[in-house]
Amino acid sequence: MSHVKAGGTSKNIHDSQGQRLGVKRFGGQKVNAGEVLVRQVGQTKLAGKGTYMSRNYTIHAEKDGVVAFKQRRKKNFTGRTVPRTEVTVE
Questions:
Q1: Contacts for 50 with CB less than 8 Å, ≥ 6 apart
Q2: How far is 42 from 68, CA to CA, in rounded Å?
């Protein structure tokens, strides 16, 4: 037999905080070098000219300029091409 009395159930204790992902600077906005443009999990958006991607896939501005978004097709590992958004700073 058990030596511990029955414990009650607990709900809503495993909730973690949101990661605040998404686009931080939108098209047409002026940015300075080093600013965060997009926070993402995985490579949903591509880093184009004037930007670079850090280890956690965050896209930063490499230089001062204006943010622009454009659609581009990228080849998958399987060979299939999928549409992706490319972030650039001009």
A1: 61, 62, 63, 65, 88, 89, 90
A2: 20
Return the CATH number of the domain spanning residue range 22-89: 2.40.50.100
pLDDT in tens, 19-29: 999 999 999 99
Q: Kindly provide the b/e burial profile for residues 71-85, where b requires at least 16 CB atoms within 10 angstroms of the residue's own CB.
A: eeeeeeeeeeeeeee
For 44-55, the pLDDT digits (tens) are 999 999 999 999
CA atoms within 13 A on the CB side of 30: 0
